Structure formats: C-alpha cells, structure tokens
C-alpha cells in the first residue's frame, strides 16, 4: 500500500547575525553550530542535508574564524548536503532600497556560485512583511517559488475559498505581483520551527508527531507535509537520524524523509491537485488585529534609517553611475570596491539590525559599518568624478576672464535637474614642496584677494551666487605615483542654482574675474520673499502662520493646502517593535503655539525662513509603565501613562523655497531630552479618497486608508521608501522624506499624512526584557522633508520624479582649465517614457556590459525610448541578475514596450 503522506523534515537554523546578543556573541555561537554541523555530516551519512538560512554571509562569518574548514565546508556544499543562497543576507525588504534588494540577490548568487551551487528558493522566513514585487524579482532571477512566514492569514482547509487577497486556504498558495508574475508560495503556517527538537523516545515521539502531523494537515493542500527542524540560533539536532527512525516505526502510514527545500518544493509541485488561493501584492498582515505587525520598527532608532538612506543613495544613485560614466571614458570599473562597500552596508540590513530592534551594542556597531561603507563609496566617487571632470572641455573659460576656477556639476539621477548646489573651491594653493616657509605660505594665502569675481556658466552667462570665505585651509593630494603632497590654500564656498543639468550628465561653470561684462544673467535676481512670512516662485506660494504652520498654494491647480507642518507628540509605552500610546492620553500639538519666525536666507535662487517652537512635553513614562516592563506585560495591555513633569522640546524648522523648486523643503532640528514618546509632522491633504500611494520596492503601492475589519490597533502606520502620496480629482500632495520610513494616513476627516520624526523607547520587546536605553534617542536630531503639491497624478505631473530627486545629493568637482572630449551639457544617454522611473546605471561584473534599469510606476503599459550619444551600440534586455536576454537594438536609438509595473533592465555592450 502506498504512503498517504510524506513528512519532509528540513534541518536548518534561522540565523539572526545580531539581535538580543551583540554580533560577536552570536558569532561565537555560529562557530559552534557550524563545527557541530560539519562533525554531524561527517559521522552520520543519514543526516542528509542542512539549509544555511538562505544567506551566504554565514559562510564568510564562519570562515573568518575557521579558514582551515573551507575545504571540508566546500565539499559538503558541492555534495548537496549543505544548501546555500540565494541571498547575501536576510534583509528587511521594506527598510532597504529597491536596488539594495537586488544587490543582495546578485551578490548572494555570485558568492554561492563560487561553491558550485545556488539554492533557487525565494526565502523570506522572518521578513517583517513582504514586498509586492517579490514575485517579479524572483521570476527574473529564475526562481519560481517563495517560502515566507509573515503577511498572509491561513484559514485552514475547511475554507475552500479565501475571502481576500491576504488570506489563503492552505499553506501552499500562489503569490502574484502587481505585474502579474506568479510564484508558488509556501507559508510557514505553523512557523519555521514546527519540526524542531524531534524526540527519540517512543512515548514522547508519539505524542509529538500526533500533534505535529495534525497541525500541518490543517493547512496543507497535499500529502507533502513540511517540518522545519530548527529555529532562531537553534543548535543542530545531532540525533535526528534516530528520531526519524523512531517516527517511521510509530507511523508506518507516513514516509518520514530528511529532506531539503528543493526536494520539498518539487514534491509539492507534483502533488497539487486542487485550486490554490491567490494572494496579491504586498503581504503586510493586512487581515490581522494590527497589534503584532512589527511595522513600527520603521521608526525605531530613526538615525539608523537616515544613515542607511544616505549610504544607499550615495552607492546606487551617485557612485555607480559616476563610475559607469568614468568607465565609458576609459577608467576601470572598481567591481571589487563596490562589492566590499555593498557587503559592508548590507551587514546592517538584516531585519533585527536595520529595524533598530536589537540591544544597544548591536546598533553601536552598525554606526561603524555605515561609516566604513560610506568611506569606500566616497573614495569611488572622488576617483570617478575627477576622471569625468578632466574630460570636460573647460578651455572656454580661459577666454572669458582671468584666474578661472572651473567646476563641474554632476547630475547622476534619471531626470534633468535644476537645484541649489554648494561647492568648496580652492581659490589659490601653495604646495609645501615649493619650499616656502610656513608663515609665508599662510600670509600669502590670507592676503589673496577673493573679491570681484563672477560665476558664469559655459555660455558665459552670469549666475547669481553667494560666497562664503572659508579662509586659510590645509589640504593634500595623494598622487598615484608620488608621496602625499600637502598644501595651504585659500578656500571659498559657493552656493548657486544649477539649471537644467541633463540626466546622467554634466554642466560646467567657472568662478573668475571677467574680462568684460557677462551676458544677461542666467536667473532672475529678484527675491522670493514677500515680507517675512510669504515665499513665492512661479509654481508655489508659501504662507507661514503665527504658529509656524504652512499654507501652500499650487499655482498650477489653484489648490491650497493648509495647516501643514504642525508637530504632534504622544507617549509611547511600547517597544522597538511596536508603538503604543497610553490609554486616554491627550495628544499634544504645536497648533496654536506661538512660534518665533525670521528670515535666514534671501538670495535670488532661494529663500529660507526659520521657525522656532519653544515647546514642552512630558519627561518619560511613569512608574506603572516601569513595573509593567519588569512583569513582561504584553504591550497592548499596558496601563502606564506619562509623568506630569515636563522637559523642553525646542524645534527649529527651516522652510526653504528655491526659484525653480517644485516643492517646499523642510529641515527640522531638535535636542530630544524626553523619553517614551513619539514625534510626528502632520500634513493635512483635505483630498477625498479611500486610498493612497506609497513608494515601495520597485512599486508605488496603493494602500487603503481604512484598515480591514479585523484591525483593532488604533494606529495604522505603514512603511515608505522615498514618499507617500494622497491624490484625488484635480489635486494631490506628495510628502517626500530622507530616511523617515514610517507614516500614517490619519482617519481624521482630512486624510492627513503623518510622518514619524522620532520614536523614543526603552526596551527591545519580543520574548523577554531587554533594556535598550539608547533607543530613547536622546540628543540632537535633524530630519528633512519635502512637500510637493500636484495636479492629482503623481507620475504624470512629475511629483514622484521630484520626490526621487530629493533622495540624491548633488555632486560637484573643482577642475582646471583644459581641453576635453566632452562638453558642458553632455550625457552619454538620454531616455524618455511616460510613468517610468529610472533606478540604476552600473557595470556588470560578469559581462563588463553597462546595465540601465527602470520600472513602470503605473498599471498601464508604456514605452521606453533610449538614445546614445556614443553612436550605434548593441542593446539587449537583461534581468535582475544581469544575464543577457534578447537583442533589442544595434543602433543609437531604440523604443521598447514596457509592461504594467514591469522592472526593465537593459544591457549595453561596451565599445
């Protein structure tokens, strides 16, 4: 008689690199685990295989301490007894950028391939919600499945039809992305530890398996039952072979197999004989009570998210395209440096790291990693921009005047760009090698005249600017062929508006003494101010009320948005994972609070008004709250309040409007001395709509303003990447951010966008009491936002593009007067396409080809046009792993259809 069912027992460990212990303490446990694993595989041939949690960094971490084990480790991998990949680390999908998610997959594949094997499974065991574009990304990577633990509500086999996009009748399902891509999904309905610690004693084993088999069959659509033999930092079960023999003896109608993820997935695919539920898009536990979604990790230790945003933007939006541009000019592309920078950054991307939900020691170490990755990236940027700047023909400036100090502005975004830039220039230098006494060098530099100069563009037009004399400065060069070259210099800082710098291109300027008057100015010299409380350009009017709130009028639509930028403060008696406001607490706001308002910048290119709120908030949570923490009271049930004592919270907000600005920029700074609280900025939209959109991973996700009926949590906070948008007929408001990844659209009758600026908490949360005093985030904080009104269509109006531009810093380089192969205004490629967002430009390590990527923000198909300034080139369609696909063009221009929500990558053969 054939077996009725198969119990697939998969040995694994879920390895959080750092969490409730600092990294090195977890690291030592990993060494012990891996030593035990190799020993077990060596001595027990019946211990068939082990899955290394889908992340190749485990191999690096182990071999760092045990390099002598590499040969043995590699042998077991090649034999198929240790399964590795496909990721480098198990990231938090929503708190890492689109490109970071792809680098994680690409580098994981590269590392695994060195061992001769890649486990092709979309493994997301404990990701805090799953991104909607995962099915498309996985499909492009040749992966037709996903295994995950969160985001879908299992209903059990008695429910033959699930009643929403976020429920499944079975643990097996179909997961569909917004573009229509589908993968077979395996939900860990009984979690990824449902087969841990299998007994060898017959009595214990009988009770264990009766319960476990029934639990699995409750959700399984086939007789292929999954049992994950391991858990968080779970040691190897060394007697598993004996335990399996015991189980087989007790349950002869079941085939107990020491399996692996690949064999299990193949068995499921062979056995499915009924219709599976289809779940669609983002999986964020929408059909739950809302108390345990872990979404508030988006606001735990916001300083980490800000540093991550800076590091990601510098790598993917500045360094990679700059290095690609320099590569087109003949410079070697530094693949090894990029891999090192990305790996160092991604070591901060696991869900317990970037989420800010670990002990304090973990997050202290993250700061050093952020700095290390940034230092490598800045080196790549400096080397690349120097090569490009030296290729720009600046000889024209020698004919315009004397003592020309040329500079090159780089726009490495995917859109033509106008904006305010600041650059430090060395007006004059004296090198130590020239033999001048130090006092003479200093006096000559201090005496150098920096007055009477003009900033001009490459057409000779005067550009309004402001100069700050930075005085005497020390500097040095590090030549490739000589010892370091120190110098003294006279340095100045110039600020001006760079206009219409082409996408992925350059523009040149020079600061010089004019030989004759310049042609008409490149920008109007009028002020943007109308008194101290009104700023206005051709697109926007900004009025500042006595309480510091803003009224912004979109001149193109006539729509006015009121009460923008009010601050809100509440208590928070939750933890690093979840926010909880004290019951019955009155929310505090700055609405009606008199503010000090003054102009701090009035130039032809930008106006800035400073708003100062002298505010007070409760000092901390009370004694009841402290007792509840010690007693491990589940956070939704806590009764604690905030104390009556107040501490100052002075918020200094700078509101800026540039001459060509499409949005109003806000920078808020404050010294946080309060504990156990949350601070948000409020942006009422007064737009009637039941949904809103938020920037996510290769997707502008549409989300409901009102949660599902099961939702009990008063808060409905969500994740965002670059922005959130509320739009209706004829008007919309986009609020962009830098590293502020938590927002909520309030159910207040005004569809107010609330962006979290700070959340101060005192404990990790989860399974015990782990104090985290540094999660209170005491001290100086600075946040940045941009308010972008538009016509109601964020992509067609350009509001979404403006929000993406806000993420990317300008790059500027001083250079000399010289000839060159490219002119000001040059860009190697130009593109167009309605609803397309540019994502990346880099060079493939495998092929050496240039890779360009976009994604379609909308549900309708569109076309991508690409034009090369370099002449005819071979262009093919690639995938997220940079593998060559069909040829699409061999000319200088191409037009390519792009499907709804499609992620499209083009490879260009470098000539």
From TrEMBL:
SMART domains this protein is in? Alpha-mann_mid
Question: Record's InterPro entries?
Answer: Gal_mutarotase_sf_dom (IPR011013), GH38_beta-1 (IPR041509), GH38_C (IPR041147), Glyco_hydro/deAcase_b/a-brl (IPR011330), Glyco_hydro_38_C (IPR011682), Glyco_hydro_38_cen (IPR015341), Glyco_hydro_38_cen_sf (IPR037094), Glyco_hydro_38_N (IPR000602)
A GO term for molecular function: carbohydrate binding
Asked if Transmembrane is a keyword of the record, the answer is no
Q: Which residue range or ranges hold the Glycoside hydrolase family 38 central domain?
A: 297-370
One Pfam match, given by its short name, reads: Glyco_hydro38C2
What are the BP-aspect GO terms? Answer: mannose metabolic process; oligosaccharide catabolic process
Q: Domain of life of the organism in this record?
A: Bacteria
Q: Which keywords label this protein?
A: Glycosidase, Hydrolase, Metal-binding
State the family it belongs to.
Belongs to the glycosyl hydrolase 38 family.
Identify this protein by name: Alpha-mannosidase
What is the originating organism of this protein?
Paenibacillus tianmuensis
